[in-house]
Design brief:
38% helix, 4-stranded antiparallel β-sheet, 3 helices, globular, alpha+beta
Length: 95
Amino acid sequence: MTTTVELTRFRVSPERAGDLLAARPGMIADFQADRAGFLDAKLVRVSPGEWLDIVEWRSGADFAASRAKGANLPGIRAFFDLIDELVSTEEGTLS
């Protein structure tokens, strides 16, 4: 089995970093409840206003199904709504 990794870099104004971190547990809980194949997620602060979200999925198909759902639950929507700018999204596999 190959694990798919989602790498999403985004910007949030530094003054809303606390709100972002407060919204994170709700997003994770919604992913665990609603997203088949969700394995783990780590949030990395790259600079005061830029973040990298590293999300592990059981497969590329699970990641694609999650993307199709978008911000369909309140915890996910609350987290996504705090993002000011999407910088990049990449997909890879763990070796």
